[in-house]
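Z., the sequence and structure:
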Amino acid sequence: MRINVITIFPDYLEGPLGLSIPGRAREAGLIDYHLIDLRAYTTDRHRTTDDEPFGGGGGMVMKPEPFDEALRALERPGHVVSLSPRGRPFDHDTAVRFALESDLTLLCGRYKGIDERVGEAWVDEEVSIGDYVLSGGEPAALVVIDAVVRLLPGALGDHDSAASDSFYEGRLSAPAYTRPAEHRGRSVPDVLRSGDHPRIERWRTGQADAATRQRRPDLLDLDAAD
């Protein structure tokens, strides 16, 4: 898989993408990150990527020309995604869908956003990682990349690791414990030390359902609606 990221701060992403699962996936040849400096596609000596909005008002808008030139220069833009608070919520199902793409391009906006004509010409969808505004799309790009890359076959040590995550089957995950068996007067549930794997699986399912009902009942409501 190839992920292109168009940004005015490629260095913001380079470090994190070399760490942990995203870094190991690149070393294993599962993913290729292509960080594109938007300023390289400007034409003025100040390398300007933004301008005042038509119609007045505060803030600045990212210009269409640099994005258009950067996208045209890509041999394989693939599925183009704009990271924006105006987008649909990014969730597990979206991450799965993105992981099936051979080429994914993420656009990192800033200020008041990217000129709408870029979206009209190039963008397949807009996604948001939450109902809040960031200084730019770079943190959101890292969130999307991490969620997508860990779903690629071979990125994790085993399939069960991902299959037991929250949202994988529409529920939150069960509580997790490790050694020591007792810590400051709090013990690991006996069932997890029983060696009875069918019983452990039933316990985990029950705990996952209970956590979902308590913390994210909306997930259960969605299931009921289906």
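The mean pLDDT is 93. The longest helix spans residues 197-215.

Let me know what you think.
H.
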